[in-house]
Amino acid sequence: MNRFFNMDNKFFVFMGRVADLIILNLLCILCCIPIVTAGASITAMYYVTLKMARDEESYIVRSFFKSFKENFKQATIINVIMLVTALMLFLDLSIVKNMDGTMYKVLFSIFIAFTFLYLLLFMYIYPVLAKFYNTIKNTFVNAFLMAIRHLPYTFLMLVITLVPIAIFFIPSFQIQSIALMLFFLMGFAVVAYCNSKFLVKIFDNYIPKEEDEDAVDKLPDSGDTSQ
Asked: How do residues 176-193 score in pLDDT, each as one tens digit?
């Protein structure tokens, strides 16, 4: 009985992690509401989950707003670029759907390919910003190169990210309602945390082993992501 109530018990550790993810998820959603701040919010969420993946986190709220403030400018610019790009892809695909024949097949294939590349970039851009100091241009370049260089991890993270969306296609209003409730309770943070388990392994390739991480969290000023 004493072992059960020990705070180091796996049950309490698990429940503590769940509570942290719920808090983090709610913070992320609230800070995403203005839309323009969504980039800073997602970046801050990944800043926390990357630490959680290494068991380094201390104060969830403090760490979240620390990253939110430090990365706000770059994250906001990146967010605007990503939103505009997503809108352009959506409009292009909408226009192409009204076509037919060979032109439809060619253009549809091209825009689907661009959409896929967009998703790959989206998987990395905010985590890279959360972990490394760099210019906006090189953050985009490095995020894209990482996505391509680590395709097995990239595909795993893409599946983890898209699975919750697939649940909403299940023809059951009850299941959809429960899934929606759980997703808004902790879904975004859970996805980020699961992805962070892979991201820390990827990022370790770009951090010199002999130096302290906090002192060298900076990628080079070129497209080359190697140190």
From this structure: 788 788 888 989 999 999
